[in-house]
């Protein structure tokens, strides 16, 4: 059995360190204060209840603290819940750090950056290459830290870079099969399409939307960034417009956040590759948690469907 | 009876100068070449047929030429059509010029500019005022020429400026009635919201969409413009973001082209004032062409409704 | 800090009179009876729990009673909740009455009625004036008491009259800016459009829908009322039909309750003014409760959006 | 082979009297005037072209005139068209009258009225019976003339009465099978539900929408009529409200014209019986015109479906 | 007052046998285990709470066990709830059996089968008759046991057969009124349309969806079954295709599960009869539980509407 | 310039053999018979008019005949049209055959079959392999002839096999990148998903829908076929169900013809690969016909979008 809170079964006991992702105070129906904690490690997260919480508890157990917890896994309204029997803050002698509790991409940062750089060198159109390189350079560091989304898919450290690299791989294969595709555009579009998320999301630990993210969104911000970069680099020509179009249209439809739908072949394909990789990421991770013959939880971002793992698959 | 092609009734004859807005060649079912001309003056436009067109006709009667036409108004599939009996190009001695055939805003350019400038001076927040002034200054000239749209509403010379001024007047009144409204934001939002159309549309004579307009649209372009202007003027602070948000959200819904809906009070009110003025412009112009007791043509941009003019209205 | 339950912050204690808007019995998960009370004053309302309620409590603490309450403001599932430590019924010596706990329009009844009457006298078409006056006269009294809706906007005493007066003011301004508008129709439409709510809603204290309201709705009832009034006053002519059309179409679309969409200019404008005033009322009241830099609660009737109050607004 | 224009096949010649339902002038692409006539008899209608029409022709061949025509049936854009070789107005000696060319219900007026009257007598609730009887009495005459709709279903003389009688028969059977149904309500609802069409439609010959029909529609008009009738007869009690609700809700959904959906069992069943009879009427008449193994024309009011007649049906 | 849990009013006490339909463990907010039981008899079902449940309770009180319960009916979040004061398992001496607690169709199995058989003999087309008879024979036994659905309508023992028989009766009456209808097709379609539910649903006691039901659904399974039956019986000809079409299209629209909409008259009518009988079943059973002047619970499968029972109906 | 009717520009003359795809008789507005011919070669198709057609012409120029045509390319309502100046039937001495005029897949049949066979051998699950092989064997011949659709994508000879092979290639690459994917299922799903089209469509020359295609559609037919094949081969186990599910769900949504959405990972991926290959096929062929800097025609199956070919692409 795999270890970690994401794999802990109902009825088992638990005794390990966890990171507090979220902490909320509550009052029971009989008037007693308690704490609801969302605790996580690299394998997943669980809701936990700390009954009869004291004022000291409220001050101690807050977001981004690491705690040592013992308790039992119960089920509540169809979801797992950890009933805490003892809890304490981690101290330096425990030798634990936040990064140990954050899920990471299955590929390390250096490899991700190397693959992105390699793809960048394959771009031959000088205007496209220069704009893309300038922007990647500017965002090098956060790009290797950030998740690709606050939830749903690639929602782990380096998730955005991992998503980009997977998409580049699909794109590379498609360019072999369909030589009509313009690899320069497709690669640049993949690298830039979601970089606005670095400004839209707050970071990797307790990911929320920033004010800019709420009022503008990552797509218009990235369109602006490309325009500004082109101006700084004194690049003119249709490449600027087309690259802005790829970013602007990559959600595919107005209802999904792209005021203009894809009107260039590579924009359409960028949209489809984005869908394909995001869905595979969600499906693989959900199916990894169930046995053959079982259904996954309902996946919100897949129209709330629960997926079946056939018995003849291991 | 009002004079002009927009008011010419079926069965009447016509003899005057008109501007060619569009010219298309065709072949009759018996194999003879003809020309379909869209002819216009300040009151409207009409489709006309020139049968048995010669090669010389095809070369002479092209877009943006002025012609002297005699003919009769017929009806074809429920729309008026001009059957040409004679046609010739205008020559210098006729003393006619294109601007005479283009519909103009009912208010002259100087007055429009004066009203916009007055409103600009009412803006007290220095960041908002500086950004707005810089952009208006840059686009001063085309702003006073351009229509507000290729069709539907304010589709005449100075239409965009006229739309802005009408909206400013409504906004001014609303700010009196609801003092909570932030006039600075509302005025700046009104002045900037549609300026992206100066890059989205080709101009005032035969208005079409530019490539930039098709692939990006006026909203993302204007968001970018505000960002660049702020950077040039070294303006920082929430005003930049909020002004970008007002422009981004002014179509009200994702399906209508705003990837983010209005999330600031003045953004919501900007959207409603825009709707109100555009609809009144369409309704007033359509109802002006019918008599009491009649219905207007179906108005495409008003969900294809035909509006009724009650008999007790003059 | 403003006084009243609508402004009470989490963690503060509360000690004052409140009106019971709603009272429901419940059983705790351990089998003990308790009361859930919705308590209100003029500034808002709050859910309160009275644990270990006796049979006497159940009989005493019912809808429309005034109580003296002490307790503490907690938070429960993201909403404020009052934890009652002591409660008693108000007695005559307390000198409190229901009207003190009902939120009132910010304008008094006499002023509202005066403004409505003034607008009535501006109507020049005799048929429109007579019908409107007869109906207003019939409903004079409840009109000045009723809210404009059970919730969402103008949901306070005299809310309907306040909504009408605000709309009349907007309409007056628009008629100055767009002289084509028929002020008679627009004013009459505004005064009558929602009067069916006097039959659709139960009243001002604990507003619910009546059986007539559920099975017919205020729009068809008001169309009928106009028809009957015209018959009684022996008024004939298109004015009756057009006035019925304005009321029938004022929700704008079939999906929103208007089986016929607006097909007369003033009907369209009535719909837009109704939207504009309702939205401004909701926005101003929600933003009044938050500080600059904060978002409001989600507003159900505004597509569930939370609105932002920029930091540069006071 | 059945006789009449509705059954005339492509390539056959035609020589008989027809009624002009509609007449429009046109100009050919070579500038010659012609007339487009919609001609009908009891079996259907056809478009006809009269080429080289003279001024006299235009004056003679107008709506509601009977003509004697010879010509040939051609096909034009997938629809039958009559190419006229000779035409003349009918004169008194021809012994033809309009009513011969109007399609009639397959049941005669007396029988229809008798069946309606019988059903009326089955209603036992005195309030329901008195209201229904009063309204039927008022509309006795046009009810037996009018079609049930301008097109789609029961669009023939006495069509409305025929539709009512068919629905009453279905309702009678359902009341036997489901004795819980309140026959009084169901019968009254069936008899009244569409009577507003007598005011919504212009009549039986060239059926169009009246101004009242366009601006109010038959549903709100009939709700008003029931209210007025109850007032005149001094009937009070829930029966009035419920009967108004049945009429108001009989289109089933807001999008289909019922601002309130059915909230009473008999209202829901009225809606379903209405659908059932209207669809059977459309299907039977469309299938009657094709042979086994063929598809009907696309039926607009059936989501544009073409229906198949299996080869094993005669 | 009718007897049974479906009719038990709030505040009354209860003391009788009930069947456990569902059992779930829970933990109170103070950490104590309890059981949530869904208990049923022939008149309905109720949620019950067994507080302070022991390990023995958890093992004893499981699905499909009969228990003797005493307790009181409370209300919790607007729904009835049984607060258990004592509970024990039924023992053989109690003389109760599961079938006594399952709701049954109001018509017995023999009568249902007789009516189906009679209708089968009315089918004259030999191909249609042979296919229908073969399939009915194969499914004879489960058909008389199964409900027509897991919830919403005819969700009781023999519910599927009862639904079929009611539909056959409506169809019989419609064939009298509209002789154009092909009774053979309509009867066969009614008998076969939902038989796929015998494979889609798990059975009659605690009805859930099978894996086949979730991944294929009853409609495609039945289309396949008809095809296989025809092959076995060596039946060819259009009857096979048309019968498959009737089953395939009987949900009316793609969104409702029919990839092809009805394109044969009898398919359309089958769809409407199915709707009519299902809705009447839901409405009659819901209205049976309320008094005149009251609304029913919201009916999920009727667009969540609550229906009103007029005061003048007994 | 590429040769063939698909590349012929307006104003050029044409003189070559073409295949008649469709022939319709018409009557001009002056009463003269003419023929409308849809003519095609391997590069595309064009509408042509043969004026003053004789009875002999009507008999000679019918579907699937090859003709030698001279004429000129005109434009009519925005589409190219061939004005025929001379025409004659091809005779044996011309040495032309139908297959020369039918567009073919860019890969030959042998290669296509070889690639399908290779993929078949990669399937390791014996049940999946046996079912797939049996069905492919049965349909070997038509599979290599048929188009993948009547229009939109892969609408050429061997189009279905070409679509399958392209999809297999994408799937192969994805299985390398995402080793969690079950290649057996994905390959089998790709090979079988559209084979129902062999029964749904009439063939390759003038492709129309068969009666079975209209009343059932290719998806339910293929689900049935898999079930029958499994029965014949006496294969049991979940593989049958899952394979049926893949075919049933491959259109992705009920509205698009899949009554059950994908609920197995490989079903979801099958749907996405299908989309990806179909869209690339449409885009590549449409873009191949325009120059850099131009837009394609509107593509109906791509939400009617016109796609832009950037100037920097050759």
Oligomeric state of the chains in view: homohexamer
**What is the typical, i.e. mean, pLDDT of chain A?**
92
Secondary structure class of chain A reads: alpha+beta
Major β-sheet annotation of chain A: 5 strands, mixed, barrel
Largest interface: D-E, 44 and 43 residues
Strand content of chain A: 15-25%
Q: How many separate domains of chain A?
A: 2
Q: Give unreliable regions of chain A as ranges.
A: none
Total strands of chain A: 5
Strand order of the largest sheet of chain A: 1-2-3-5-4
Number of helices of chain A: 10
N-to-C order of helices and strands of chain A: EEEHEEHHHHHHHHH
- Spatial shape of chain A: elongated
Task: State the end-to-end distance of chain A.
Answer: 15 Å
The helix content of chain A is: 40-55%
Please compute the radius of gyration of chain A using only Cα atoms.
Answer: 22 Å
Describe this structure in words.
Chains A, B, C, D, E, F: Pfam families: HD (PF01966), tRNA_anti-codon (PF01336). Chains A, B, C, D, E, F: GO terms for molecular function: exonuclease activity; nucleic acid binding. Chains A, B, C, D, E, F: Keywords: Exonuclease, Hydrolase, Nuclease. Six copies of one chain form a homohexamer. With 314 residues, chain A is α+β, with helices and mostly antiparallel strands. Chain A folds into two domains: 5-101, OB fold (Dihydrolipoamide Acetyltransferase, E2P); 109-285, no CATH class. Helices cover 41% and strands 17% of the residues of chain A. Chain A has ten helices and five strands; from the N terminus they run βββαββααααααααα. In chain A, strand 2 and strand 3 form a beta hairpin. Chain A starts with 12 loop residues before the first strand and ends in a 27-residue tail after the last helix. At the D-E interface, helix 5, helix 10, helix 11 and strand 7 of D face helix 4, helix 9, helix 10 and strand 7 of E.
